[in-house]
Design brief:
Blueprint lengths: L1 H26 L11 H4 L19 E10 L27 E13 L2 E11 L9 E11 L8 E11 L6 E3 L4 E3 L7 E13 L2 E12 L8 E13 L2 E10 L14 E12 L4 E10 L7 E10 L1
Amino acid sequence: MGLRRSFFVLALLVAVGGRASSARADDESPDRPSPSPDSGRHAIDRTWLYADDARVAAPMTVIGTTSLSYTQPGSNPSRVGSPYPNAYSAFAANTAQPGAMVAAGGEVGLWPRLSVLALGQMGMSGVEGSPNPSAGAIAGVRVLLSPLDASRFHATLSAGYLREAWSGPFYDADGGKWWPGSPHGDNGGWAQAAISVDVERVRLATTLHAEHVFSDGRDGLDVLAELGASYRLVSDVRLGVEYVGQDLEESFDAGAEGGARHFVGPVASWQLLERRLSIVGGPSIGLSSRSPAYVGRLGLSYGF
């Protein structure tokens, strides 16, 4: 009886071992390539056009970002700032420069909670008397405030330097007219707080941005707010909506920019290549008389 039981146990172990080996062979077959060891480290999560996803780049990795946007030129000029494409989309408080604009830059992770970023931009404003093209840049640091192991809640604080692409035109509240400002832009500083939360398939985000430009005749503080909500349809495809409120400090009293601007629109995002590539885009429409009639933007981000 003891010998039979031993043979039975041995046969069972051989069968289980053979099944496990077969499963491993299937996983490693050419038809089902195993994930790259670096795929998790280089994965990114940039799913917004304007709001910040409130994450920082992993240590010693790079997130390259580029975007193309177009804003309808209108009778009420918008001041120029930085249309960062997604995640940190609006470091300078203007997401709607008239005309076409292309931006390119990147973020580099230094430590688990700290990264640095830089962005250059080139725009064709479409406003009479403005420089074409016009160039600007931003630089700054990003700090992760949420726990490192958090998977559903993220919070960041960011700050840095900005150089406007084109400063103007601005509104002279005393004289009741627009004036051209500086054709070569002005220097400034900015700070930003962002939070994003995942609840099952729903993702919510809010970003509050403030900046000060070192130039006479400007508002003491320019304020921008961004709100977003999206739903994961299948795999890494999301659909949602985003709202942007620009120059909110002028909501009740027109200042250098001639009043607040608001716009809202749908946003779609798709993550590919083991989430190393994010594609996000969508149109928006203005909600007030001084807002642009429409804004369109497409952004790409890739983790290296």
